[in-house]
Design goal:
Strand order of the largest sheet: 5-4-3-6-9-8-10
Protein name: Hexosyltransferase
Enzyme class: transferase
Largest sheet: 7 strands, mixed
CATH topology of one domain: Spore Coat Polysaccharide Biosynthesis Protein SpsA, Chain A
Strand content: 15-25%
Number of strands: 13
Distance between the termini: 165 Å
EC number: 2.4.1.-
Structural class: alpha/beta
Pathway: Protein modification; protein glycosylation
Radius of gyration: 43 Å
Number of helices: 13
CATH class of one domain: Alpha Beta
Order of helices and strands: HEEHHEHHEHEHEEHEEHHEHEHEHE
CATH superfamily of one domain: Spore Coat Polysaccharide Biosynthesis Protein SpsA, Chain A
Cofactor: Mn(2+)
Shape: elongated
């Protein structure tokens, strides 16, 4: 009995164990199926990724077939090379855009500076009508003749030789686009006798450009800076020329020389030099800031000699925009050269802008190298220019038309002679049947 019952219990346990095994097998099978399902899903996805990778690799290579006749040439280009080229092109476009923006900003600043400069100049010289009438047209060059209150005789010697007067000067402006003015500021006592003398001379001659500047020998750098700023505001010219009033100039030759550089936007034309920095006090051209140029015996940087030089419109505009920041050295030509250091400027060294007086200019003309300007180096201009300017003009003036020739009556001619213009040749009076003669 007990054996049976014990056997019955054992049978029940066996059945339960079998059931548990079946459930375990069922769960294992279900897990296997689920694992196969997810595994198959990933196996189906992976080939797509692989295909995409292979497709992208294929797309990185371009196949170009060039056919010539019966032969074919296969060229494989790497897309990375095209990418670099596109990047270079993009950078080039960006640089062009930046340059355009920079040019526009410079023009805008120049317009603002011009408006302020013209406003200031109008308060000094009343040039509003002149500015309005000249702002719309284009000129080839503006020549500013640097002069002083005490240089009336020098100005007259220039007027009687290479500088045209009256209608001829107006014609030169209208037809050739060449503006010529004597450049002068005002005295320390505004409205004094010196200013009134210039105003009277201006009423008679009409060839002055008045600056908002106090005249003084030690202020030449400031005067030059103000001249360029004012000139670029009053006249839209290709070149702006600074010349001293004791230098002889062939205007036509100067125009022909500068016309060669019209394609250059930033050009600085003159007789380039780099003389020694003079540190010793009391000597001519002493440089108080000599210590900025290093040890004793050093030379200046490259710059044009101050008797005559020309700059393009872009450089004149640069001076106008930055006039409050530009440093002034003791010597005016050094100051001008310093303003262009660090800029991308074309330096033109043309020795025809610094010929000597006769016979030097005559010898060069005979060799076919006509001088633009003539002066004596030892005097930094024509020595005794009041007395010698006419002679230099007669022997060195090579323009086809003598712009300074004017018709004068004999009485006026004699009056000029009495005013110490003794170089006028009175021997020619008897050769004229009329009561008119030409001044040299």
């Amino acid at each position: 009995m007990s054996v049976r019952s014990r056997g019955g219990v054992t049978g029940d346990l066996a059945k339960r164990n079998v059931m548990r095994r079946n459930w375990a097998l069922l769960l294992c099978f279900g897990s296997f199926c689920a694992g196969m399902f997810f595994t198959n899903s990933r196996m189906w996805i992976m080939p797509e990724i692989g295909n995409t990778s292979r497709t992208s690799e294929t797309s990185n290579k371009q196949l170009d077939i060039e056919s010539k006749g019966c032969s074919s040439k296969v060229v494989v280009k790497n897309a990375s090379t095209d990418g670099l080229q596109e990047l270079a092109d993009t950078q080039q476009v960006i640089r062009m855009i930046n340059k355009t923006v920079s040019d526009l900003e410079m023009k805008l600043a120049a317009a603002r500076a011009a408006r302020e400069t013209v406003h200031n100049e109008n308060s000094v010289s009343g040039n509003l009508k002149t500015v309005e009438s000249t702002s719309k047209r284009k000129y080839s060059m503006v020549i500013g003749i640097n002069t002083a209150f005490s240089s009336r005789k020098r100005r007259d010697s220039v007027r009687m030789t290479w500088m045209p007067q009256g209608e001829k000067r107006k014609k030169l402006e209208e037809e050739k686009g060449i503006v010529i003015r004597f450049v002068i500021g005002h005295s320390s006592t505004s409205g004094g006798i010196l200013d009134k003398a210039i105003e009277a001379e201006e009423l008679m001659q009409g060839d002055f450009m008045r600056l908002n500047h106090v005249e003084g020998y030690m202020e030449l750098s400031a005067k030059t800076k103000t001249f360029f700023s004012t000139a670029v505001a009053m006249w839209d010219a290709e070149f702006y020329v600074k010349v001293d009033d004791d230098v002889h100039v062939n205007i036509a030759t100067l125009g022909a020389t500068l016309s060669r550089y019209r394609t250059k936007s930033r050009v600085y034309v003159g007789c380039m030099k780099s003389g020694p920095v003079l540190a010793r006090k009391g000597v001519r051209y002493h440089e108080p800031e000599y210590w900025k140029f290093g040890t004793a015996g050093n030379k200046y940087f490259r710059h044009a000699t101050g008797q005559l030089y020309a700059i393009s419109k872009e450089l004149a505009t640069y001076i106008s925009i930055n006039q409050d920041l530009l440093h002034k050295y003791a010597n005016e030509d050094v100051s001008t050269g310093s303003w262009f250091i660090g800029l991308d400027v074309d330096y033109i060294d043309d020795r025809r802008l610094c010929c000597g007086t006769p016979p030097d200019c005559e010898w060069k003309a005979q060799a076919g190298n006509i001088c633009v300007a003539s002066f004596d180096w030892r005097c930094s201009g024509i020595c005794n220019s009041v007395e010698r300017m006419a002679e230099v003009h007669r022997r060195c003036g090579k323009d086809t038309e003598k712009p300074g020739e004017t018709i004068l009556g004999v009485d006026k001619y004699r009056k000029l002679c009495k005013r110490k213009y003794w170089w006028l040749d009175l021997r020619g009076l008897s050769a004229f049947s009329s009561e008119q003669i030409k001044t040299p």
